[in-house]
Amino acid sequence: MNVAIVGGGNFGTAIANIIARNGHTTHLWMRDPEQVAQTLEAGENLRYLPGHPLESAVSPTADLGLATQGSSLIFVAVPSAGFASVCREMAPFISPDDVLISATKGIEPNGFRLMSQLLGDLTPSEHVGAISGPNLAEEIAAQQYAGTVIATLHQQDATLVQEVMRNDTLRVYASADVYGVELGGALKNIYAIVCGLAAGLEVGQNTIGLLVTRALAEMSRFAVSMGGNPFTFLGLAGVGDLMVTCTSPLSRNHQLGTCIAKGMSLDEASESLGKLAEGVNTLQLVYAKSRELGVYMPLVDGLYQILFEHKGVPDVVSTLMGNTEGADVEFADPSRWQ
Asked: Does domain 180-322 have CATH number 3.60.150.10?
């Protein structure tokens, strides 16, 4: 079948290679014609995924209509800041039966919408979903063992994505909780900054364990307030993605936290990384929404105070450690004391 990947970044390119390797004609759309020309000449995406030759069935193009109009399965892997704009651009080429899958982790500020919601709102497609999980592009491209989650309301769409993507090194699991799966992918970026900050301060492993598990509690608590299933966060899109992003130096969000720990301002840290980490924008949106909904998220509050209210790390840590402890595990039957 014909498949389109809209977005020629590292993850979009990695997905394109996976699908082409499985025998499908794959159109890889890049906005920049110069990047297309460079990629065609080099046989690999030198800008975002160097060292990984493109499969022969991958066709880079700067023509969005050419990429999408003849494709019944389309993955959208552009940055969240430009996601809505790209949806509007490709809408004329989309039919209601086309399956559109978001491969972008983020939140649209206008109305606090996730990427699959933008696909549904801004294109004619009646079959939208999202993939998420612990999917570092470099490792996926190197064909290291990994798993991902395809979330969609239509079982046949999930089956289609599984058939197109699965191979000897990639497992593709299915979920009907589209909102929960996507929200997990967006929220974990906040806690990657927190753990990067902790790593930069050279805390112990006990501290990292505390942060990751309390982060998971906050994520599931917030998801429930937004209509997600808390048990989704026990899977790859929750604890799996959270663990990888919070401990991997490959994560831009983790790197940003480490820079903050070294005494850099947010602007200085972002400049050193080349761009603002996704978790910073997500933090601002989730901080505002959690206060609107009255959801208890002390790690979000603490990081917001450090990055935007310029409070000292020791003061924030002291406040966090002074908070009253609640139940260890939420959304489960409470233990019964005699």
From this structure: no
